[in-house]
Specification:
Elements lengths: L1 E14 L2 E14 L3 E5 L6 H8 L8 E2 L4 E4 L2 E2 L5 H7 L4 E4 L3 H4 L6 H12 L4 H14 L5 H4 L9 H13 L5 E5 L7 H18 L2 E6 L2 H7 L2 E6 L2 E7 H6 L4 H8 L42 H5 L5 E4 L2 E3 L9
Parallel strand pairs: 3-9, 3-10, 7-8, 8-9
Antiparallel strand pairs: 1-2, 1-4, 1-5, 5-6, 10-11, 11-13, 12-13
Helix pairs in contact: 4-5, 5-7, 7-8
The structure holds adenosine-5'-diphosphate and magnesium ion.
Length: 326
């Protein structure tokens, strides 16, 4: 069953004197119990997509000129605030790259998790704190009862991310959106957090939308992948098949940039497999937005933006090359 259905979503930001087309006509489905990864370099429109789901973009600077996002039968795009508040944190939860910016520095961990429970359930304070301790133990935080008294700054980055996950899971959501949840963490802790997400998914049957610039993360946990470039989906497919034989030169470049196990990549370091940078979205190149960086670019790529087309069952690509020619 499809839980979340994004259809022809576009997001524009109106800035003084110009408009940024951050997301252009993308579609994405998440089935019950599925982990879907949205992958692409920084600036490709991943967060704008994620924030659209719970309507957390800075409106009215951000606009949705078209599109639809449904959770089960509820339309979320343009929904009333009271509808959204019932869904946020209750049916769909979100975690971010930097837990420090989402956690409240002056409240204890226990107070923050309990707050979510008090808002969405009929629990009293004592029950909510008890449940908070249970949640901290589910995210494998040592001494969960004591940790309820801690303030965020007293925890390590990995522990704070576990607290965020505990908060996100408090009301047993059906969909967890994780926007670069491991990017700020070092490699060993990254692996632990991914394993935790994987275990929690098995336990709860929830669906996960994981957003990352790292295809290594995708290989670990996703069943399905969508690759985003300059606000568009350029390739999608089952994770194993896509990683084994990519159809789009950009995907191939991303795969070539997966850091080898044990090497730490400088944040923001250039992708080894792909020369150049993602274009500024208010000055997108003509034709295929990837053509200036593409080693396979042909004449047609400079003038015509290829449509996303079905290549084989469940696999789509937008590229003028014959599939299989990489
Ligand atoms: P990603 O998450 O893939 O790194 P984003 O979705 O954050 O990319 O950004 C996509 C584009 O939208 C970028 O060009 C960025 O500059 C622009 N953008 C994102 N958020 C805002 C905002 N709040 N105001 C104006 N432009 C924004
Ligand atoms: Mg982002």
């Amino acid at each position: 069953m499809t839980l979340l259905n994004i259809k022809n979503l576009s997001v524009n930001f109106a800035l003084p004197g110009r408009t940024v087309n951050a997301v252009q006509n993308i579609s994405l489905n998440i089935e019950e119990g599925q982990t879907v990864a949205l992958v692409g370099e920084s600036g490709s429109g991943k967060s704008a997509t994620a924030l659209s789901i719970l309507q957390l973009l800075p409106y009215p600077r951000a606009t949705h000129p078209q599109g639809s996002i449904t959770f089960k039968d509820t339309e979320l795009l343009g929904a009333r605030e009271d509808t959204l508040q019932k869904i946020r944190g209750r049916h769909i939860s979100m975690i971010f790259q930097d837990p420090m910016t989402s956690l409240n520095p002056v409240l204890t961990v226990g107070e923050q998790i309990a707050e979510t429970l008090l808002r969405h359930t009929a629990m009293n304070r004592r029950e909510a704190l008890q449940k908070s301790a249970d949640l901290l133990s589910r995210v494998e935080l040592p001494s969960p009862k004591e940790k309820l008294q801690y303030y965020p700054h007293q925890l390590s980055g990995g522990m704070r991310q576990r607290v965020m996950i505990a908060m996100a899971l408090a009301c047993a959501p059906r969909v967890l959106i994780a926007d670069e949840p491991t990017t700020a963490l070092d490699v060993l802790i990254q692996a632990q957090i991914l394993e935790l997400l994987e275990n929690l998914k098995k336990e709860t049957g929830m669906s996960i939308l994981i957003i990352t610039h790292d295809l290594g993360v995708v290989a670990e946990i996703a069943q399905r992948v969508l690759v985003m470039y300059a606000g568009e989906i350029v390739e999608s497919g089952p994770a194993k098949a896509l990683l084994k034989s990519p159809f789009h030169p950009y995907t191939k470049g991303l795969i070539a940039s997966i850091p080898k196990l044990g090497t730490k990549k400088r944040p923001g370091a250039r992708l080894e497999g792909i020369p150049g940078n993602i274009p500024s979205l208010d000055q997108r190149p003509s034709g295929c937005p990837f053509h200036p960086r593409c080693s396979w670019a042909m004449e047609i790529c400079k003038t015509q933006n290829p449509q996303l087309r079905m290549i084989e069952a469940q696999r789509q690509v937008s590229c003028h090359l014959e599939p299989g020619s990489l």
